[in-house]
Design a protein that fits this description.
By secondary structure, this protein is mainly α. The protein has helices at about 1-10, 15-55, 65-70, 70-95, 100-105, 110-125, 130-135, 140-145, 145-160, 170-205; strands at about 225, 235-239. The chain has 2 domains: about 1-200, no CATH class; about 210-239, no CATH class.
Amino acid sequence: MAVLLLRYRLDHLGVNPIEALIAESGQWAILALIGSLAITPAKHALMRVCTRVGYRFGRRASDWNWLIRLRRPLGLSAFLWAAFHAGAYFVLEVEGEWAWLLEDLRDKRHLAIGVATFFGLLPLALTSTNAAKKRLGKRWKPLHRLVYPMSILAVLHIDLQAKPGDPLAWPYAAAVALLLGYRIVVRLATGRGQLERDGELAADRARSPCRGATTENATAAICHPKKPGHPIFKTTRCL
């Protein structure tokens, strides 16, 4: 940001420095956002590669904790760039005039979408600390899934402000579609696998003579002959 501001002050941003400052800060914001979305797929891909080539390091998820720790600074960087982007527009483009801002919000769809994206990212930035995560508990993860629709809105914001035929938003749209599509495929595959495992477990329990045992005395559906003097079951014992 400091370098971008210095380039603006030195008049090194072309014939329209205000427009260039706003556009470049917005591009850095969405790049950081895409980077944060890419962390989990990158971890999965690297684990797969390390397993295939036979490396001992990299097969376990814990080997990539250092990579996962990059997600928070990337997400915060995306928000800070978005705040810089919005602030530059408000201070330089509409010169701090709320009436002009409201008029632009009414007339320019991309601006309204950009404001919605900024305020959608705000609670994610405010709750990015460990203390906030602990305080929110189970609500933290659903809240931070807001990053997915916000990334779509960010791409739409760029696409709507681009000139007709300008492919500026296409690389960003492709990256976001790929990263979100990967998550959908993984989620569907995981859900299908869990359903299959649940069905197999239910079938095993239905076939087992121990299906009436309590969970305290039977923790699996595998039965073995009863040991002499066993006080719980007359014919079988479940482990």
